[in-house]
Amino acid sequence: MKAEKKKFEDQAKVLMDSLNMRMLEGKQQILSYSKDIGASFDNIEPNFAGSITDVELYSALKLIVEHRGGIQLPITHNGLGYNNLIFMSLLLAKMQVNASESYLGSNSKIFPMLVIEEPEAHLHPSMQRQLLNFLKQNLKANKVRQIFITTHSTHITGALDLDEIICLYKANNETHASYPSQVFKDDEESKKYVQRFLDATKSNMLFAEKIILVEGLAEQLLMSTFAEYVGKSLEDNHIAVINVGGKYFNHFLKLFNTNNSAAINRNVVCITDRDPMRKELSIEGTTYTKCYPFELNVEAEKYEYKTSKQNMDYSPNINFYFQDELQGKTLEYDLVRYNPALDMLVTDSMSNQEEIKALMKLFKEDKSIDELYSRLSKSKENTRIIDGLKHEKLSWSDGNKKIALIAARYLNSVGKGVNALELAYVLQENLAKLGSEDFVEFIVPDYIQKAIEWVCES
């Protein structure tokens, strides 16, 4: 290395001497003032001389970005995120050279460790993933022994394995560390499920102060609006709404069940449907199928019934909220059960719009249950609804029957995803009219209201 440095310095001296010769006339003019101001005395005078080292030469170069077409741009014309990438690449290259056995000798004891603070700053999500993939390859190639990244990016956490994640959080004014992979050490099935579905949207649960877990897209899209109607703000309370894609709460709740010391101590509420079901007793091997609340327990000699219930094996920071056990079914069903005359809920994407609005109008006018029956169109499902409501063992009042009829008809006319988007827009538009005569009262189903209040106030 010393020989190479000496060789570079000798070559640099030739270049510097050549520059001095080219600058001779200009140098004389520049330095002529030194005599006049008294800087030349006692047989000494200023002059130019010097050498350049390899490190100093690097400092003389300007980092540019060059397009394949030949256009060159200064690095200052780039976005901050892109420049951060270049900066990290240069630091990493320097660190790896400094830690190289060929550079330091085979007897060197080096444990190269890379620490990056929030690399996602000003960086496009796809470039975040590309950076992470590069670092993983770097680690695999033993160019660095250990990498630490602090991040608030769901794109980065969504691309990591659970084994690679450590969560730092505060509880009771103390900082704690959680190791998500450790909560699954005895449950490989749940670990694989969470690993598969912990994408950029669901991994937000690792950063939130509190979490609402819901079954589907409709609840996820509407929950923030529901909170505004009950006078709460999910954003102000740093609450993440996570759609788990069905009744798969158990897998995700392992991350927060503080009965396990490795879990994250965060308050979590699960909002889920009752989903009443039944199966025929006379047919061996038959499976449960969905039924209406008014069909529950009325033919015990023919069917076996069940509804979703709360799992009690969780710590106190986890709570479940369902619809009413006897009259609830799903979100869409309960929206109308609490707002049976509110035709604002009938969105453009729904089928049977005029029929549902007519049923709501009849309810508002307090017409008889028979008039509502007569307004239903002829179909196999509508016949089932009428037969269920007319069953001799059903002891509901006519008022509850009318509400159930409209709710069932509404539920069967909804396309969940599109309807939820339209409904969120309609409810937000109505909310903007609060305090004016144009505002229409909308009642948030009580199980949702209680869930929102619990998680916001806990």
Q: What can you see in these coordinates?
A:
This protein has helices at 2-22, 24-31, 33-36, 54-60, 80-98, 101-104, 125-140, 154-158, 188-197, 217-229, 249-253, 331-338, 353-364, 369-375, 380-389, 398-411, 416-431, 446-457; strands spanning 64-66, 72-74, 113-117, 146-150, 167-171, 174-178, 210-214, 239-243, 267-271, 277-280, 289-290, 303-306, 318-321. The chain contains 18 helices and 13 strands. 27% of the residues are buried. It has 458 residues and is α/β, with parallel strands linked by helices. The longest helix has 21 residues, at 2-22. Strand 7 (210-214), helix 10 and strand 8 (239-243) form a beta-alpha-beta unit. The strands form 5 sheets. It has a 4-stranded parallel β-sheet, with helices on one face. The protein has a 3-stranded antiparallel β-sheet with strand order 11-10-12, with no helix packed on it.
Main attributes of the structure:
single chain; elongated; alpha/beta
Helical percentage: 40-55%
Which stretches are poorly predicted, pLDDT < 50 over at least 5 residues? none
SS class: alpha/beta
Radius of gyration: 35 Å
- The global form is elongated
* Strand count: 13
Mean pLDDT: 85
What's the N-to-C terminus distance? 65 Å
